[in-house]
Design goal:
Keywords: DNA-binding, Transcription, Transcription regulation. The chain is mainly alpha-helical and about 210 residues long. The protein is built from nine helices and two strands; from the N terminus they run αααααααβααβ.
């Protein structure tokens, strides 16, 4: 199996991995998405192009990893547990606001989306790795809320994909497309709003055979 098919990047030498991602972000800030080259990243990071292509299948994948594959933003459910679905989703919204509100991301995402649309194989890998980790977090937040309420299903909105799409889509529209300044309480309001939508419909009781 090609190592790249296992996920975004190849975890070989953490120091080089980090240098490549830092160099990519620096160059995005300096020259922009369209003018960034793999050669420039290799030179800035003090690494060979082969080191990049051992980890990333393409320039698009390298840029995606530099913007979105931060381990600190993945598997957040391991560290985020506020005691409520609204609180957990507010924490996720705050992360997304920081991510999409970053000037480097704001400048790069439009071009990245165009390239993602043209590369279905990479788009699928990105969905499996980055989005897949996020979906696992949302699934855990929902599981906790079901346990707190003692139900089998919270309602029609009990769907990790729906939570991810609503939160990420709303945040990107706010700060990435419309470029509205996020108010200090925006993350909290989004978490409350989305949690209310999840629990608005009739819940499904836990079946007797699962009790």
């Amino acid at each position: 199996m090609d190592a790249r098919s296992q996920g975004l990047g190849r975890p070989r030498e953490p120091d080089i991995d980090q240098r490549l991602l830092v160099a990519t972000r620096e160059l995005l800030a300096e020259v922009g998405y369209a003018r960034l080259t793999v050669d420039a990243v290799a030179g800035r990071a003090g690494a060979g192009k082969a080191a990049i292509y051992r980890r990333y299948a393409s320039r698009t994948e390298l840029i995606y990893a530099a913007l979105f594959a931060d381990p600190a933003l993945l598997h957040r459910a391991d560290v985020v547990d506020t005691g409520s679905l609204a609180g957990d989703l507010s924490a996720e919204a705050a992360d997304l606001l920081a991510l999409f509100g970053d000037p480097v991301a704001q400048a790069a995402v439009p071009g990245l989306l165009v390239d993602l649309a043209a590369d279905s194989a990479f788009a699928e890998r990105a969905r499996d790795v980055y989005v897949g980790a996020n979906l696992a977090d949302y699934a855990e937040y929902l599981r906790r809320e079901r346990a707190r309420r003692g139900v089998h299903r919270l309602g029609p909105g009990d769907d990790p994909r729906l939570l991810h799409a609503v939160l990420a889509g709303t945040v990107y529209a706010w700060v990435g497309m419309l470029r509205w300044e996020p108010q200090a309480d925006l993350a909290e309001r989004l978490g409350v709003l989305v949690a209310a939508g999840v629990t608005a419909g009739p819940a499904t009781p836990i079946p007797d055979e699962l009790r």
